[in-house]
Amino acid sequence: MKIKNILLLFALGLLFACEPKIDTFTTTSGDADFSKYVSIGNSLTAGYADGDLYKAGQEVSYPSILAKQFEAAGGGEFKQPLMYDEYGFGRRLLLDASIPGPVSAGVSPDERNFQSIAGDGPYNNMGVPGAKSFHLLVNGYGTLNPYFGRFASASTTTVLADALAQNPTFFTLWIGNNDVLAYALTGGTADSITPMPYFQGSIGTILSQLNGIGAKGAVANIPDITSIPYFSFMNTRLPYNGLVLSAEQAGQLNYAYQQFELYLASIGIPYSYGFNFVAGQNAFVIEDKSIPFPDALGVFRVRQMKAGELYLLTLPTDSLQNHGMGSVNTAGAQPLPYGIPDKYILSLTEIQSIATATNAFNGVLENYANQFGFAYVDMNSKLRAIAQGGVVSDGIPFTSAFITGNSFSLDGVHMTGKGNALAANYFIDAINAKYGSVLQHVNTRLYPGIYYYQ
User: Fold this and answer.
1) What is the pLDDT along the chain (454 residues), one digit of tens a residue?
2) Which of 236, 256, 328, 444 has CB atoms 3.0–4.6 Å from 421's, for a disulfide?
3) Residue 7 falls within a domain, yes or no?
4) Pair (222, 97) in one structural domain
5) Are residues 274 and 411 in the same domain?
6) Statement to judge: residues 92 and 169 lie in one domain
7) Residues 335 and 353 in one domain
8) Same structural domain for residues 142 and 185?
């Protein structure tokens, strides 16, 4: 009997020893103070997605997701300048799986989106779509940018002034993307990369003033443009030498360009294209405005595309397939060169200029973050990892694939709700490491990806 009792006690001991325990997660602020959080930035901060700013996108902006995590560590209210509808000024939609790409919603914007909501402010989310680094310091920027104009405290104020007026105890700053992106989005045909003195001076002013009021914060850097679908998707579908010709077609193109050379020579411009089209794959013909022809001869300024040059997401593939774009236009009385327009291509020179500026700007952001003791979020490396092989979070694969990759919305530049949740986790990692806080990751499964409308 005693042996049975001993065995019973032993079995009960094993039972209780193996009983699962639930570890409690204690959230703490560490050396940070999240009681007044203000986010500063551009469209990535505002919650812009699918080609515009709309209410549901704002509600899953990365700052709003962060603010919810801050609440458990003493964070206060986080107010956003929400739009009144789900279409903004021109949101794009994916109607159903049978349509190959997104289309405009075609819905007139709610008139209230054009009205000032400053009276209901101030607003913790100071993300302004379209803003470059120096725009945050421009007096009266709200008169130039309607996204800021609708919630600016006064017609003469600056974005930074409205942020500082709230006396934030903690901030996030993700700015600088548009300082290179605005140029890249036009294929290098419009806008320009921000000069380094402007960028350095702006970032120094912004961070020194935030440091001056005693705020702590986190600074994110600029992703490489090749990490986002707008500059990568088409290049996974169409090689630079995707002009496939029969022997007869190759001969016709060679003859056509010989005739163009003869015409140029006849008007005193001896020029050789150096084209040699062959049966099979050939490099597409693209515009190159650096070729020194008079503007009146702009249509003749073409060359063949080089390996490593990039198509933009906006490339009209129908024109390639059916109308001679990328080779010769035969629609008129006489054949003419028909290069893919500059606005749909980034040349090797343009790509290098963008990469050089991005690296230099990121050096500025990191140096100032270190100088003032702020957390630094290396978004560049994070998005590169997503683009180069993908990452998995909460069992969800994140890649840079357009539409199907979970990371990016239908404009190929801005993130989905899931992507914003992942970005929020990257901020949390940097904040915890810098300030000794214990903030919990968000579950990316709880946030939306691409919406399909039936």
Assistant:
1) 444 444 444 444 444 445 555 445 689 999 999 999 999 999 999 999 999 999 999 999 999 999 999 999 999 999 999 998 888 777 877 776 555 578 777 788 788 888 999 999 999 999 999 999 999 999 999 999 999 999 999 999 999 999 999 999 999 999 999 999 999 999 999 899 999 999 999 999 999 999 999 999 999 999 999 999 999 999 999 999 999 999 999 999 999 999 999 999 999 999 999 999 999 999 999 999 999 999 999 999 999 999 999 999 999 999 999 899 999 998 888 899 999 999 999 999 999 999 999 999 999 999 999 999 999 999 999 999 999 999 999 999 999 999 999 999 999 999 999 999 999 999 999 999 999 999 999 999 999 998 776 5
2) 444
3) no
4) yes
5) no
6) yes
7) no
8) yes
Cβ-count burial of 438 within 10 angstroms (0-12 exposed, 13-18 middle, 19+ buried)? middle
In eight-state DSSP terms, residue 274 is: -
Residue 16 falls inside a structural domain: no
- Asked if 49 and 182 sit in the same domain, the reply is yes
Domain of residue 186: give its range. 37-227+348-446
Of 212, 172, 225, 250, the closest CA to residue 383 belongs to 225
Which residues are bridge partners to 245 per DSSP? 280
362 and 260 within one domain: no
Residues 436, 440, 444: CA angle, nearest 5 degrees: 140
Other beta carbons less than 10 A from residue 189's beta carbon: 15
First-to-last alpha carbon distance for the chain, in angstroms, is 72
Q: Are residues 160 and 270 in the same domain?
A: no
Indicate the residue among 339, 366, 385 that finishes a domain.
339
Would you say 365 and 200 are in contact if contact means Cβ atoms under 8 Å apart? Answer: no
Measure the CA–CA gap between 426 and 29, rounded to whole angstroms. Answer: 17
Q: Are 329 and 323 in contact (CB under 8 A)?
A: yes
